[in-house]
Structures are given as structure tokens and as C-alpha cells.
Amino acid sequence: MRNIKGTYTLIVFVAGRINLGIGSLGTFAFEKGWHAYTGSARGPAGLLGRIRRHLKKDKKPFWHIDYLLKSRHSSIRAIVYTKVGERHECKIVKEIGEKNVKPIKGFGASDCNKGCKSHLCYMNDDFEATLKSILDAYGNLNLIASLRLF
Fold this sequence. Notes:
It contains 4 helices and 8 strands, in the order E-E-E-E-H-H-E-H-E-E-H-E. It is an alpha+beta fold. The radius of gyration is 14 Å and the shape is globular.
């Protein structure tokens, strides 16, 4: 996956309701349960580099998601990804959003020019349902998805 570009969705478990400062966005409340963050990896480190960075707890926050991932109350439990040259995160977010999910308004979408409300959604308190929704979103877009569980 080194230098391979792609799009990914992190499935993040938040162990309890928390309030976190997210850089210049201000304070956000995160509910206990499963959250899905979708992004793209287009830099020189590719998917592998981006995923490795997201998995590290000890890092200087750069993206909005870094603030949530640094919290001791959150952990990545799965990553769904596809190796594609084009950006698909907005399409995937839209597909995920077709389900009964709650977007965290403005989170991870500050550079989005497709009108996304957010690239992070609160899904629910059921891992299997969350995973199915995300895999369905990739499938509905005819994207070949790979899965890594943690």
C-alpha cells in the first residue's frame, strides 16, 4: 500500500460520551458508540502511511480526526479501504449518510468542495450494523473494499 492512493473509512469506538476541543472548530460532543470517518490518502506515503499515522496515539494533531483519535476514550476498531486514484470520500460519505446516521457537522469537511456536512458520522451502538453500512456504501459505488479489523 506504500505510495498507493486510496480512500478509507475508519470505524472508531468511543467508550463514553466525551467533549473534545477540535482545533479552530471548537468543542464537540461525541456520543458513546461507533463513529465512521472517511478520508483520502493522496500524499507520497499513500494509504499505508496515512493509516499508520491514524493508528498512532502520540502525534501532533493535524487533521480534525487526530483530536478524536488521540483521546484515551477512542480507538480504531476497523478500517475499510479501497485502492483508487480518484477521490471517493464524498461519495462514500453520501452513501453512508443515506442510512439513519448523525453527521458531526463541519468535522473533517473543511476542505470539501462537494457540500458535505461532515466526513465523520455517529453511526450507532452496534458494530455489525456499522460495518455493514460502510461495506454497503463501498459496494453501492462499485468500489472493491478491503477490511482490516483491530
